Amino acid sequence: MARLGNPQETIRVLQKHDFHFQKKFGQNFLIDPRVLDKIVEAAQVGGEDFVLEIGPGIGTMTQCLGEHARQVLAVEIDKNLIPILQETLAGYDNVEIRQGDILKQDIQAIADRYNGGRPIKVVANLPYYITTPIIMSLFESRVPLANVTVMVQKEVAERMKALPGTKECGALSLAVQYYAKPYLAANVPPNCFMPRPRVGSAVIRLDCLAQTPVEVEDERLMFRLIRASFNQRRKTLQNGLSNSGELDFSKEEIRQAIENTGLPSVVRGETLGLKEFAALADELVKVRR
Ligand code: SAM
Fold it and tell me: For ligand 1, what atom is nearest to the CA of residue 101?
């Protein structure tokens, strides 16, 4: 099978199978071999590694991964792509294709079966419509992960690595940085894809942390506080948390917890980092007791 990753071969394969792009699956296929090399290099894939690829499309990146990794499992939701993948990946004995929704896979079982339970590497040119749910479900499942290297919308990559107190920083920044250290590997323009997306893209590697940067008694509560604060970023922390439908603390409980944390009463949630949110969550647990 010919090497994919260029416009001519991609068009040939798509025409041969009379494939029609499905917008609902966020299908933008890579057609630039330099970008493929950058992704595989950024992901630090080596001959010992098992790689889980999310959304292989017609198998363009999968071929590269198959050449560098010990084994690859590629999970693709679109049934119409499976016969294409069977053809483009024929001869890649170390690549397995699975039809399904990545959000419904048991990733722990995958890590156990393909990597003896050791931390796995995840690589994906993600469908932009579900970037955040996919990344967060990987982290929150607490599956052993070495790194997650993903192509995402450029603004999303910038948000993931934004520092607390900056205008790009949001709930996603703090959530990602609780689990991983982000490293921006490359910016990728729309003309590297077919069809061209309307936005710029970027490759970001998230190196998963062995230990979270802060300790907190109730992790879920901390993330509810983070979301509530950034959902109403113009408001003071106190008003943002009091108005949130996600929380059921009284105004007085929130005031007391903010005071106990040593934060100014008029502080805005958007200026806080993980350390302050963890302290606030711990204080709220105490206040409630
Ligand atoms: N990796 C290919 C490439 O770089 O050319 C395709 C990338 S395209 C942006 C995203 C791929 O993810 C599509 O093939 C799409 O069908 C697939 N996809 C979308 N939602 C998915 C899901 N929930 N689970 C698995 N694959 C999904």
Answer: 24
CB 79 within 8 A of CB 99: yes
Q: By C-alpha distance, which of 15, 100, 120, 7 is closest to 60?
A: 7
Interval between CA 102 and ligand 1 midpoint (Å): 10
Rounded to a whole number, what is the largest CA-CA distance in the chain? 67
Cα–Cα distance measured from residue 33 to residue 41, given in angstroms and rounded to the nearest whole number = 12
Are the CB atoms for 62 and 3 separated by under 8 Å?
A: no
Rounded distance between C-alpha atoms, residue 205 and residue 147, angstroms: 7
> Which amino acid is located at 94 in the chain?
N
Tallying the residues shown for the chain, one arrives at: 289
pLDDT tens for each residue of 138-152: 998 889 999 999 999
CA–CA gap between residue 155 and residue 131 (Å, rounded): 12
Task: Please tell me what DSSP assigns to residue 183.
Answer: E
Q: Is the pTM of this model over 0.85?
A: yes
Confidence check: pLDDT of 1 > 70: no
**127 in contact with ligand 1, CB cutoff 6 A:** yes
